[in-house]
Amino acid sequence: MERVTGIGGVFFRASDPDSLSKWYERHLGVGCPPRSYEQRSWDQEAGPTVFSPFPSDSEHFQRSDQQWAINFRVRDLDAMVAQLRESGIEVDVHAETYPNGRFADLTDPEGNPVQLWEPAGADAAPPPSE
Questions:
Q1: Cβ neighbours of residue 105 closer than 8 Å, sequence gap 6 or more
Q2: What is the pLDDT along the chain (130 residues), one digit of tens a residue?
Q3: Contacts of 119 (CB under 8 A, 6+ apart)
Q4: Is there a domain that residue 62 lies in?
Q5: Whole-angstrom Cα distance, residue 123 to residue 130?
Q6: Which of 82, 80, 71 is nearest to 117 (CA)?
Q7: What is the pLDDT of residue 128?
Q8: Cβ contact 119:48 at 8 Å
Q9: CA separation (Å) from 34 to 12, 55, 90?
Q10: Which residues constitute the domain of residue 73?
Q11: Is residue 87 part of a domain?
Q12: How far apart are alpha carbons 100 and 119 in whole angstroms?
């Protein structure tokens, strides 16, 4: 059976797309979209990805009208949180450490929720050989 090999893009509306792209690049290291087809898109490191629809009344989202949320893997949550806070970005680190890792929440300049995840347990292990 043929299957997808990963996520090829995350697309969402923004009031100021150029400014928001630059914010994600400056603070989280997510490369801006290429300006031409000759430029390569942002490469992410291989690793676990959760793709999960949630019930429409889920409390996982910050706003009741929020339709999507993005979660970025990080190697060192404490270092990333310190870096963001140095830039004046408010970050809420979850007090609980979960079996699958540690998490922190923030919002981008347009109010979109962003979650950071330092994997642990089975998700921290190297992927199985194919």
A1: 62, 91, 92, 94, 113, 114, 115, 116
A2: 988 888 888 988 899 999 999 999 999 999 999 999 999 999 998 889 988 898 888 877 777 788 888 999 999 999 999 999 999 999 999 999 999 999 999 999 998 899 999 999 998 877 666 5
A3: 47, 48, 73, 100, 101
A4: no
A5: 16
A6: 71
A7: 66
A8: yes
A9: 16, 34, 29
A10: 68-130
A11: yes
A12: 6
Among 13, 32, 14, 15, smallest CA distance to 23 is for 32
Evaluate whether residue 26 is within a structural domain: no
Q: What is the CATH number of the domain that holds 83?
A: 3.10.180.10
Domain count across the chain = 1
**Residue 43 tokens, joined:** 């490469």
Predicted model pTM: 0.88
For residue 70, give the nearest of 101, 40, 103 by alpha carbon. Answer: 103
